[in-house]
Amino acid sequence: KPDFTCTTLKDAIDHISTHGPEEPPASDPISMPALLPSTTQTESLATTKPADPPALHHLERLCEQILEELKRRHDQRPDFSVSKLMAGITQILSIAILFVAYLNRSNNDVMFPLVFTAIFCQLLTIALLIMDHQR
Fold it and tell me: 78, 32 in Cβ contact below 8 A?
């Protein structure tokens, strides 16, 4: 039968901080007399507060971060992606084509095909980024 049962990590940390590390039982636990706590010991245990709650909160948060990292360790993705590289190139190409269309804004026969080409490049950029996100 356990001495104490904790339902959360915070309860366990509070219990350990108030009771400290306990000595392991002697080799013959039956020969040790069972001591009943006196009323002063019971009152002092009831009024004892956990040692340094901000530090305990920090430890609890650290344990939660470790758990999240353990859950996400198989979800790592590589930093380099060909589709992201191509999306960046088509984005720059689209901006350059729009700049050329702006310079030729007086001639509609040149400007409109350039604007449509820039729009196509933007759509290609979006498609490449979505394709990379789905992997």
Answer: no
